[in-house]
């Protein structure tokens, strides 16, 4: 979906750019059309609301992680967020370390260095995209300092 958060907004314009990397078709729904669709099928309404809610929560989580000061705090914040979402101390990153570094707004080199330090301290262990949180208490303490 594109501009899904703006359709019910009080703002009249949505300023953004979208690029299609291959030939595409765009289905444009007006607010009136979307409301009619919601009336016809409540499942569509529920799926739409779930999508908007998930997008909002993801954005808020990202803002919270980006607002942390140090790389170690950003790593800890991300890992603890994933732990709370999935209930597992072992996570598989959904992206490369380069993309993770971009996500938390740090350099790839700095991210890798901090991950190695945290592994040496026994806080985490990692191999490629899999990270195990060995010491949740230490991760929590990093965020509370």
UniProtKB/TrEMBL annotation:
Q: Which residues cross the membrane?
A: none
Q: Which UniProt keywords apply?
A: DNA-binding, Transcription, Transcription regulation
Database matches in InterPro entries: cNMP-bd_dom_sf (IPR018490), HTH_CRP (IPR012318), RmlC-like_jellyroll (IPR014710), WH_DNA-bd_sf (IPR036390)
UniProt GO molecular function: DNA binding
Q: Keyword Kinase: yes or no? A: no
Q: Which GO terms describe its biological process?
A: regulation of DNA-templated transcription
Domain HTH crp-type residues, every copy: 69-137
Q: Spell out the Gene3D superfamilies in the cross-references.
A: Jelly Rolls
Protein name, please?
Crp/Fnr family transcriptional regulator
Q: Give the classification, highest ranks.
A: Bacteria, Bacillati, Bacillota, Clostridia, Lachnospirales
